[in-house]
Design goal:
Helix content: over 70%
Radius of gyration: 17 Å
Oligomer: single chain
Number of helices: 2
Distance between the termini: 28 Å
Strand content: under 5%
Structural class: mainly alpha
Number of strands: 0
Length: 72
């Protein structure tokens, strides 16, 4: 139970940080291109890629590991 609460707290913190970075990148793209659509697309792409990278790192950390002859 402690691990679940620890991971969920870290997950919430990571999602907030990813969202903050996505908003900053979207705003910068909007200022540079002078188009709202471009800013929204950049923000969505940044949020999606950040979330996928975080999900992959969590999966690498907590995935079930079977017995294998060749461990990496």
């Amino acid at each position: 139970m402690h691990t679940l609460l620890f991971v969920s707290g870290r997950t919430a913190s990571a999602i907030v940080n990813i969202a903050t970075l996505a908003v900053i990148l979207g705003a910068a793209a909007m200022i540079y291109s002078q188009a709202i659509e471009t800013g929204l697309l950049v923000a969505a792409a940044a949020f999606l890629s950040g979330t996928l990278a975080f999900a992959y790192s969590v999966w690498q950390l907590y995935r079930p590991r079977g017995r294998s002859l060749f461990r990496t």
